[in-house]
Amino acid sequence: MKRMVCAVIALLLTGCAAGQVRSSAPVTDGQPAATPETAATAETAESAATPAPTTAPPQGLVSTDADVLDYDDIRLIGYERAFQPYPETDYYTMCKDGLWGLMRSDGTEVLPCRAPQPLVECFIEGRRWHGYQDNLPWDEMLAEEKRINVLLRESGDGMLCAAHDGGTYLEFVYLTDYKVYTYSGSMGPGKLAAPTDEDMLLYSGRVDGYVPVQTGVTEDEGDDHVSIISDGQYIYRRRNGSAANIYHYTLADYFFDATLAPAERDGKWVYLGTMGEEVTPVCYDSVYYTNTSGDGSFLFRRAAPLLNGYTPVSRSGKFGLLDRAGAEYVPCTYDGLVWDGGTAWVKLDDGWHQYTIPGVTKPDPLDDLPEDITAPDTRTFSYARVITEGGRLNLRAGPGTEYDIVGKIPEYTSLRIYGSSNTAPAWVLVQYQGQFGWTNLDYLERSY
Fold it and tell me: Residue 10 to residues 48, 211, 303: CA-CA distances in angstroms?
């Protein structure tokens, strides 16, 4: 049994898991787009024109007077947010003399530059780093992994992760009845279900918002499971099937709670507004998230989303900072720039300098904790995986079974732990698909 569908890709993994939608056509890059002439607003039009290269400190940013970093390159690390590639905001991967390492976003070196390619964070269990030992002989890997993991645990910076199979996924599909469905499963064919308002709010920011959709066909796999073969192209659609614009994209991001989302067409990236309109020229290059070939070479494959209203962008080999209106707050004239939602590292002649934006601070994850969810007594930070022997784990409003159930979490889901209770030490505060809640440690396996 076959039905025409459109499938939203929410899981493009490197090393950890494979996406469930299979493309039937190769993705090819088009010709580079022309350099933009103007910005999204008249006030910032001058910043979007191509200026002469400069290494002067960027206007609009304030120096923190932090130590200058002597790296050749610094890049965002690919992680995920609700099954979609998304930057890690507390760490970067940095390069010196062609080798890569790990640093905190404040500039503290965690792992010296030794890896042959940029590090990637495990999409299944957070703060597990892939790729650091790829250039070591096999007989040295295990001993070195143990040694490094001891140091990482002592410093609270996660641990190394070897390659392994993938985990669960959730995508959106669009059927010929002009309705959007969720498509979810674990390492194989998935099931279809009607999306909830909460799903649409999470992925598009609105109940009637847009999500990227891929056209393809489903094949019945039995037991209400289907597999999907796509054509590798995306269209932004509402769940009633209406398209946002006339364009097809080779890669596309969700909006989540941001005003812009990046999408790729003709080999370049463009940023869309929440109504589906393109608010920047199609001119930006990928800045993070590597794809690796068989010969060990790699390419960056993703543009970054807005992180607290700004995002690093690159065009013509130079870097800048885009704002939520689609204008270059810092024009693309610098040899390197990364942003974690509160501070930027910008590459000048003598190295990487740290800057802030006046009035902008990095968000505290618990700033969005709802009033009906009990706050933790102790703030902690770690990751864990759900182990329920096939069932779904209850997410509760407080640390105990007497509190209301506010959600259910599938087995093998990786969760970030935000805090604990002094009166109920077996309970921890976690977040699943944007929903905060409490769960019992008896059903969690800590990553570190």
Answer: 31, 10, 15
Q: pLDDT-derived band of residue 226, with 50, 70 and 90 as boundaries?
A: confident
Residue with tokens 């037991």: 223
Enter the tokens of residue 27: 């993705």
What is the distance between the alpha carbons of residues 180 and 210, in angstroms, rounded to a whole number? 11
Query: In the structure, what pLDDT confidence band is assigned to residue 5 with cuts at 50, 70 and 90?
Result: very low
Neighbours of 239 (CB within 10 A): 22
Distance CA 134, CA 202 (A): 36
Identify the residue whose tokens are 């087995």.
Answer: 411
Domain residue spans of the chain: 367-446
Residue 17 has pLDDT above 50, yes or no: no
Percent of the chain beyond pLDDT 90? 57
Q: Which CATH superfamily is domain 367-446 in?
A: SH3 Domains (2.30.30.40)
**How far is the C-alpha of 259 from the C-alpha of 326, rounded, in Å?**
9
Model confidence at 24: pLDDT above 60: no
CB 298, CB 291: distance < 8 Å: yes
